[in-house]
Amino acid sequence: xxxxxxxxxxxxxxxxxxxxxxxxxxxxxxxxxxxxxxxxxxxxxxxxxxxxxxxxxxxxxxxxxxxxxxxxxxxxxxxxxxxxxxxxxxxxxxxxxxxxxxxxxxxxxxxxxxxxxxxxxxxxxxxxxxxxxxxxxxxxxxxxxxxxxxxxxxxxxxxxxxxxxxxxx
Length: 169
Hints:
Layout: E1 3-7, H1 8-13, H2 19-22, E2 26-31, E3 57-59, E4 88-96, H3 114-125, E5 128-136
Antiparallel strand pairs: 1-2, 1-4, 2-3, 4-5
């Protein structure tokens, strides 16, 4: 089972040929979830390999690779009136996969982001899929982690490993 999260509002308003902007619509992916896993904890830990789901791997550009809930609006800046609230629609898709462990694709510099490449792979390989959509106008009180994101991509299953890539321990 695999689950990516995409921001459909961003994808509908960005040029798919502009990787810098279009990649922003792909927020999170978790994969290699064992078939017996029936749910994902609401407060699952961050990190590339979450301890709550043995064998699973997750990736997001924020929150130490962990899931960060839907929140389309940045926090207000001191002394500056916040802009009108965005109302974004999100997609959470679960895929049934023919493999228990997925190969990790190589990511090209300045190309599609890791969650975007994984989402394409999942769509092309899945035996079945189910999607849930929800809308949020939440505004963050603060942003955790590094901004802009500086997350490192996972090491690809084949070929050379870029220096400093994430590998399974």
